[in-house]
């Protein structure tokens, strides 16, 4: 219904503005063509008009709600921030519609599959932050299916404008003189750079003994049977015994998750279960689960689970440490470290790349223990073992970049990137400003 309303409104405003005559000849400081203002009516529900494109107040409010949710703003305490944010969103949408009009003139297109993929990613991000489908729908103020249906067109417009913007700016380059000029103009406002390090790691996880694994599996098998015998509800079992803090308070519910969004063993079991069926214990990297599949909608699945991890004993801890320490003695070169990380590291995400973590900022890296020890580690020497909640790590620091105030000698690459982005920003603003001279723009107060 909302999309139909947009089409009707576009037709109405196209007629109203077609009466302006010389409307697209001269713009004043407000961006409204001289001579057209007498034909503009402030109709409730219209935030702005760009050419033949109408921006609805409801669309601005929807985007604002998403940003307020993402930034965790409190409407009672952050009224000024929210008001400023709304104005920023409106101006951004207006600029995007201007670029969209330019893109349409240049016949820029995107496929429906690209739009579907981008929309799915957006929804997945919302679900991940909200924690459940119910919480996401409450924050958005509408069912996800309605949100997806309406937002699909906005995502398509956004992708088209991004594609055109990239094409417009792809040939923007920068030379040494421009970098030096940028540095001289902005050096007092460039924030200090953090010290960064290029590191690799090799992870040895602390694994529980076979005895503790068997005890955990047996407990979950009995708990499953008690649920089937209705001696305890699934919700009560999850709240009482599950070790997943993110779902236990919701009775073990993970809400709807798209295929590929769950760890492989869990997902494989969940999609093979009948609705309402409860699995035997399923092993994943987090421990052991009993899983109930509640609903399947295409490639989205709604499940709940009880998670338990076998307890780690001092003996298990000592065994993992000794294994890491023994391995460290043989890793004398970077080549040996990379080869060993590929074959022995228990971090599946980095093992294939030889344990590479790239350049990290020790102060903000998600594993705080790395930041605490990096200042004490020599370059090109195997260090550790370092204990984290993941297990024991061996570390190899390949190189470091000193931090501190912006310096052309120390931070040329970073400053060059900033200068290029600044030039692209200036070019983009100039293009939009130029386009506004020939595209009708009106923003309602």
Describe the structure.
The chain is an alpha+beta fold. The chain folds into 3 domains: 184 residues, Orthogonal Bundle (Triger factor/SurA peptide-binding fold), CATH 1.10.4030.10; 102 residues, Chitinase A, domain 3, CATH 3.10.50.40; 97 residues, Chitinase A, domain 3. It has 15 helices and 11 strands. The strands form 3 sheets. A 4-stranded antiparallel sheet has the order 8-3-10-9. The protein has a 4-stranded antiparallel sheet with strand order 4-7-6-5, with helices on both faces. Strands 2-1-11 form a 3-stranded antiparallel sheet, with helices on both faces. Strand 1 and strand 2 form a beta hairpin. The radius of gyration is 28 Å and the shape is flat.
Salient structural properties:
single chain; 445 residues; Triger factor/SurA peptide-binding fold; Chitinase A, domain 3; 3 domains; four-stranded antiparallel beta sheet; 16% strand; flat
DSSP helical segment count: 15
CATH class membership of the largest domain: Mainly Alpha
Count the domains: 3
Mean pLDDT across all residues, rounded?
A: 84
Shape annotation: flat
By DSSP, the count of extended strands is 11
Strand percent estimate: 15-25%
First-to-last CA distance: 25 Å
Unreliable stretches (pLDDT < 50, length at least 5) are: 1-44
Task: Report the C-alpha radius of gyration, rounded.
Answer: 28 Å
Second rung of CATH, namely the architecture of the largest domain: Orthogonal Bundle
